[in-house]
Amino acid sequence: MTPFTQRKESNSSSEDNRQDSWELVEDLRGLTGNIQKPVKQEGLMLKKRKWPMKGWHKRYFLLERGILTYAKTGNDLKKGRLRGRIDVGLSVMAVKKKSLCIDLDTEDSIYHLKAKTRDLFEQWVTELRHHRMFRQNEIAMEPPERQLQSDPTSNRRVLTLLIQSSITSVCESGLLELNLLLKNMEVLHRTFSAPAINLLQVGLFGLNMCLCFGLCGWDLPDGSRPLLQQVSSESRGSIPESLSEFFDAKEYLLSGSSSENEVSDDDSYISDVSDSMSVEYCRNENGITKAILSNGNDCALKRRDRLPSSRMNESVNLWSILRSNIGKDLSKVAMPVQLNEPLNTLQRLCEEVEYSHLLDTAVNTHDPHMRMVRVYIAAFAISAYACSFTRAGGKPFNPILGETYECLRPDKGFRFIAEQVSHHPPVSACHCESKNYTFWQDVRWKNKFWGKSMEIVPMGVTHLELPGFGDRYEWSKVTSCIHNILSGQRWIEHYGEMSIKHSTTMGDVSHCKVTFLKVGSGGLNANEVEGVVTDSHGRVIHSLFGKWSEALYLGKPPSVTCIWRANPMPEDHEQYYGFTQFAVELNELEEGLKPLLPLTDTRFRPDQRLLEEGDIAGAEEQKERIEVLQRERRRVLQENSMTHSPRFFKRAEDDSWVSNGTYWDLRKDPGFSKLEFPVLW
């Protein structure tokens, strides 16, 4: 058996290309009782941190019986001051020879390691491979009774490993592993409850049914309950209670510790809170949505409250698609339509202004020093992530070059446009305006798959102007990571530092720094954010904390005020892609709106519409046809030495994309029905 599976990045067989590509270390094939116990391996390696203190840092590692632990120094390791623990047998491992890099993707974190010399690299790779095989064999041979005594996270990982091992080995080794799998699953099923979770299904001999055992809802031996990274959506209706429960949670699970935070021992708490504003959505007997504000005002909106069809479950062998793309940018990898949700990236950008009332509140705040204004703008920037909480199960459609989207919301007081202005690299630009503010951004993403997780690294700057004040705010997005891509309960986290820069017309500059905390062991810090607002001299004038998925609070306990909370989720939202009420409305196409939209508007896109209606086969067929049309248009442009020019956006001096100010004027006169547009679909 060869130790590595070479990724097919090109047809070239040159050594340079092989050295510069990622190689996936294969899993154990079949059970054996004669794998020799590996020797201990220890020493210094470099470990990459994305946040805080970005870059490579020296860490002392110890590899023993398939478990890799590390600390800052060898002495710290001896004293038990560990920074992290990785079960190598339950990790996806990939190596890149040219850069001497080793990547380990667990369910919770992605570990990027690097050796200083070629000899050390070869030594660590050899030992890691040996220990990994030993550990996988040890797990597979472990009696079911012993597995049940281990922690919940390990049980879930053991189950996933057994399934993957069985699928790989059925053709080669008969039904031994499959029988072992079924035996373990029978015991697990008798012992634990199995909450419904959103999975990508394997689809071999019905094994997709077996993956439904998440094993994450039972009480721990001491009577406490571990915090899940993705809690029930019901918690969103009771923010103070869920936050209190969250802050009382303790570290009991022995899962791998955070790869970025490494150590976080602070205990958090929260007292009773007061709301500065609340919004409640209800639907009357005629199906009309009403947004009832805390002041008693309400406005009736005739909008749908659910999609035409619930999500259709069809098995997808995602591993066969992704295994050759570890470490790659996935934006260029074709994915089956079953993995999509019936919205696209342009509409996702519009979701970021769902809580635009925070900007209206900021503008109407009587604050001569602009201190509270900055607080509400920080809350607005954080609220953009709330819609992602229940959306780890699907990806948005990639917009076609020249595709557009408009959202006119008199009830919210804004009008929004977006356009796909570039295809390679993919760039989406948007512009939103109201009487109180102007908001715009162009966003580019780098998506990388690491074996079990996918990282989404956004690029570009978000801009906000308040015409009444003449001030400008700018910030960049943080990194996002979707865990358990292949199996188990998928969940999303956001981490990093968001620095909101405030520039006045007088030349003064101040900042609000918001930290999205990395999830720690046992779900510690899940979805938490912390922030401070400073003046032009760097002095802290306000403190913020909360959860990007639930609520944000101003002040410090016991005296705090809730300045934002997420809207309650629609009924049965789990069956409808985890969409918020706002998301459900985005792709709605009313008869009266059709003649007003350009033919390039996303709502006319047939593959996305068919998926929304539950026709997966039709959606896949239309998606392939649309992609062929796009490639043909690109070929024609290249053959004629032409480049694509966006219709409603232009490049600014800083190389960003801004609105050219023509969309709404052309919509009114002469009207889009009288203008020519490219045939996108």
From TrEMBL:
Gene3D superfamilies: 2.40.160.120, 3.30.70.3490, Pleckstrin-homology domain (PH domain)/Phosphotyrosine-binding domain (PTB). It comes from the Eukaryota. Residues 38-133 form the PH domain. GO terms for biological process: bile acid biosynthetic process. The keyword Ribosomal protein does not apply. This is Oxysterol-binding protein. Pfam families: Oxysterol_BP, PH_8. Homodimer. Interacts with RRAS. Interacts (phosphorylated form) with VAPA. Interacts with OSBPL6. GO terms for cellular component: cytosol; endoplasmic reticulum membrane; filopodium tip; nuclear membrane; perinuclear endoplasmic reticulum; plasma membrane. Belongs to the OSBP family. It comes from Cyprinus carpio. Keywords: Cell membrane, Cell projection, Cytoplasm, Endoplasmic reticulum, Lipid transport, Lipid-binding, Membrane, Nucleus, Phosphoprotein, Transport. It is found in: Cell membrane; Cell projection, Filopodium tip; Cytoplasm, Cytosol; Endoplasmic reticulum membrane. InterPro entries: OSBP_sf, Oxysterol-bd, Oxysterol-bd_CS, PH-like_dom_sf, PH_8, PH_domain. SUPFAM superfamilies: Oxysterol-binding protein-like, PH domain-like. Phosphoinositide-binding protein which associates with both cell and endoplasmic reticulum (ER) membranes. Can bind to the ER membrane protein VAPA and recruit VAPA to plasma membrane sites, thus linking these intracellular compartments. The ORP3-VAPA complex stimulates RRAS signaling which in turn attenuates integrin beta-1 (ITGB1) activation at the cell surface. With VAPA, may regulate ER morphology. Has a role in regulation of the actin cytoskeleton, cell polarity and cell adhesion. Binds to phosphoinositides with preference for PI(3,4)P2 and PI(3,4,5)P3. GO terms for molecular function: cholesterol binding; sterol transfer activity. Residues 1-20 are annotated as: Disordered. It is a peripheral membrane protein. Its main location: membrane.
